[in-house]
Amino acid sequence: MFRPAYLDHNATTPLDPAVLAAILPWLESQYGNASSRHEFGRAARRAVDTARQQVAAAVNAHPTEVVFTSGGSEANNLFLKGAAASMKPGLLAVSAIEHPCILKPAAQLVRQGWALQQLAVDGSGSLNLSDYAETLLAKPKLISVMTANNETGVVQDIAALANAAKAGGGWFHTDAVQALGKLAIDFRSLNAAGVHAMTLSAHKANGPKGAAALILDKRVELQPLIAGGGHERGLRSGTENVPAIVGFGLAAELAAQGVAELSARLRAMQAKLEAGLVGLGARIFATEAVRLPNTSYFAFPDIDGETLVGKLDRAGFAVASGAACSSANPEPSHVLRAMGVAPEIARGAIRVSLGASNTEAEIEQFINALQATVGRLQGLTAVAAH
Asked: 3-class SS at 239?
């Protein structure tokens, strides 16, 4: 019997059964507030401390560098707005392909007197190094470049970019939300190269929604977005979401342990998928760049992406047109626009993002369903043209 296939892991991932088992007691019998002094509270505090150690170990950071937040969007906002609030306005540089939770707070800072430079990318989605070098001459105070793009899967050489920015003296941040569990992450090494902060999120790596972290070099001064009881070293007040944080800790630990094996399996399925896509005449974006092992972003000429996503959904395949967080926006992907892709092609973009639960059989079934669906849509397009 055919079962629907989930091919949208860059949007969110299914909860690992072991993570669910770790969370459940903290939703039932273990309900203490981690700031309370009695045993219920002390148990919760120990659980949060353990999770902090697990997240830190997963990316080779120190537990004191882990600041828990409610999500990747909050962590990104905490870095940009928190750092900006602790210094006089200057130049802020972010890549043109960042997630909206970087681009929108950056635009807000412009209204507070900051100058904004969007760093250009080339046609493959990699940062344009000559444009970047020119921007560095102006000594930006804040720089944010994502480790891996959520749409194309393109991976940037963050260590090299941060090292090049060192002489300017600014703070360098990377949104690594899509990297956890798919790439090996070493914050200590990145920190030595010049990275001062990094964002992670639990639900992108088979953990729960509602927990994320900003990994923060303690030399960086941030003003909190949320003032209150002084939780998270005074950087993020609010009663800790103990169940989600516990789940995040175990999910991060499991992701780090399994990254090599999973990446190899995903890469093999990605190759199988893309061979099928090429055979159907698809244009695959960013194939010249280093990409995540699970992400394929493609389009078919004269076929609308939203229409194709709907047809595939009814056929039992969950895929995305562009980024899930902006799927309500009918405009072509800002990532593809930054890469110079024509709007009529960009509107057809479809993203398949694989995960641990996917199989080669699902890839074969997807290619078959895609062939049939695209054939029907192309037939309708041909009829309409006449």
From this structure: coil
CA dihedral 142, 61, 291, 346 (to 10 degrees): -40
**Is there a single domain that holds both residue 43 and residue 140?**
yes
Indicate if 120 and 201 belong to the same structural domain.
Answer: yes
Q: Could you give the residue numbers annotated as active site?
A: 325
Number of domains forming the structure of the chain: 2
Look up residue 324 and give its DSSP letter: G
Q: What is the pLDDT of residues 298-346, one digit of tens each?
A: 999 999 999 999 999 999 999 999 644 455 556 889 999 999 999 999 9
CA distance 378 to 192: 52
Q: What is the pTM of this model?
A: 0.94
Q: What digits encode the pLDDT tens for the residues 236-265?
A: 999 999 999 999 999 999 999 999 999 999
Which residue range(s) make up the domain with 83?
Answer: 17-254
Environment class of 63 (CB within 10 Å of its CB; exposed 0-12, middle 13-18, buried 19+): middle
Supply the DSSP string of 185-213, one letter for each residue: --HHHHHHHT--EEEEEGGGTTS-TT-EE
Taking CA atoms, 90 is separated from 87, 107, 146, 169, 243, in Å, by 9, 13, 21, 12, 40
